[in-house]
Each structure stands twice: as structure tokens, then as C-alpha cells.
Amino acid sequence: MTDKKLKVVIRDLYKIFGPDPESVLDHARNGMSKTDLLEQHGHVLGLRDINVDMADGEITVIMGLSGSGKSTLIRHLNRLIDPTGGEILVDGTDVLAFSEEKLRELRQLTMSMVFQKFALLPHRSIVQNAGMAPRVRGESDAEADAEAQKWLDRVGLGGYENHYPHQLSGGMQQRVGIARALTSNSPIMLMDEAFSALDPLIRTDMQDLLLELQKDLHKTIIFITHDLDEALKLADHLVILKDGAIVQQGEPQHILLNPNDPYIEDFVSDINRARVLKVRSIMAPLGSANRDNTFGEVDGDSTLEGVIAQSGGDTTHNYLVVKDGEPIGVLDMKDLVRALVPRTASEQGIRGQASAA
To answer: How far apart, in Å, are the Cα atoms of 337 and each of 252, 266, 288, 297?
Structure first.
């Protein structure tokens, strides 16, 4: 990520819960396990040595099972929780040094949050709920309503502005939550299990809506989920947590193709790889590939499932891979077939040793 502007940077972050967290911080830094820290010192290790770079305008997805620390981590960004040790930089500024006034400004102007439980005020209309942020900042009702109406229209709720939350379905209520976050005009959106309470079809619609909005808005979004399919669909950068520590992070397609830990293997084992993997992840670069005798063109962001359908299942064909009409690589269908078979972390290690030798 060195070539991208960084919006949020987390360095050496630790969170320990208990009566005197600082007294056991060195134990955690020296590698004491979560179980031993609890049994020997009566403290709970929430996060261990978290280091993440979040690029401006991208979606960073933080995922893990219940208790992995993902919700604890996102609440550090706007300091709903303070760390035991480490740094959190937003636009290069350490938010841990913020005064109460600066912290209020951060929450009002820089970061908005979308919750799993919607958190709409039942006695306020939809437009009043969506316009909460500008109202809190002191803008007039007319200004707040106009801004809220703009985003309600954008998320497909035009005509519902005078309704109340109980009159809307769960999916519609979450659209209000997204409109409320967008009405704040903050460059960073925090989304904590935002779609987890929705039915599968509505959840898919909300994911599609978020990606559609992101194409135009280029927000820096930090999205929490326990669902790998959702993570792979949304993430530009994926961070996987276990027991408060990062197991693997990187570009989602790379993680799917190169799991570095048995824990990651378990996560990716049941994924429909043909539906998730993209051509650009398995193509050969132009410089090292034979461009002759290609059967046609495929887009680099096409899924392998789409290419299989296009080829009619014929594995003898090669395809020229293009992006915005320009060639970027060549896809050998035999590589596609190999990519459909999961590779284990142990295989990665063996191949890595062979390459090093």
C-alpha cells in the first residue's frame, strides 16, 4: 500500500481489559497467551499487536469469528474505546492525543458510523433521522432536511421521508442508517456488522448498494463482518482476526489463493471459488505469456464462473485479458482449472521453500 495515500494507520495496538491493564501490557507484548493472561493475571486480552494501513477511498474489511476482536478494533478508531498501548493515526494525526473538543469534531465531521441494530429514533421521521448529523452540528432544520432528502433519494427511499421507522422494513431501515452516515459528509464510514441482521436477499441488495455508492463517493470505509462471502465481495483490503491478533491481511483474492495459516484454510475451504475468484488474479502477465492463438477476450474483473460459461467448459482455449479495452494479460484455461482446487498453507510453505532454493 505504499503507493496509496493512507487515511487511517494503526500501529502496535494493544487492548487489555481488567483492573490494571498497563501492569500486564509487557506480558502481552512478550507473547503471553490470552488464556495465560486471564488465568495468571486476571486480565482479558482484547487486541494484540495490531498493525493495519487503511488506504484513502478504499474499503477495508475486518473479519473474524465472535470474540476475535473485530468490533473492539473498530471502536478504537473513533475512541469509543481507548487502547492500552499503540497508535491510531487519522490523516497523519494521532487521535489518542485529541482533547474532548477535538474528539467531538472527529466524530461529527470525520467519522460516521452505521450500526447493526439501525439505531433510529422511533419518534422522529425518516428525514429527521437521516439529517441527525447536520442538526447536531447546529445547521437549520431546512438545511438538514435538504441534505438528508438528497441521500434518501440516493439510497432508494424517496417518498418515505415523512414515514416513521416502525413503518419500514428492516432493509429499508438500514438504508436510512446509510443515508444518515452519508448526510454527515464525513470522509470515513465505520460499519459494524451493518448488514448482519438482514435477510440474505436484502443483505445482498445492501452490499450492491454500498458498492454502487462507493464507485462515486470513494469513501474510506472500515467494514466489520463475520461472513467471508461478504468480505470477499466488499473488501479492497481484508484483515482476518483470531483471538485479538491478525492472522493474515492483504488483497482478498491473494488471501483466497494463498492462505498462510490452517485457520485461514478453514475459512476459505467452503467458498465457491469459481464465483469469487477473478481472472486478473490467475492470469499470466503479458510479458511472460503467449498472446498468439487466443480464443477471445475476457475482462480482468470477470469471475472464473463467467469465463467457464463463456468457454463452454473447453479447457484448451487461451483468452486475452483486458481492462478498459487494453490488454493486461493472458488466461490459460488450465490455470483456471488449477485455481479451483484449494491450496493449503503447508503447500504454500513447501512451494515457497522450493522457490527460495
So the answer is: 19, 21, 20, 18
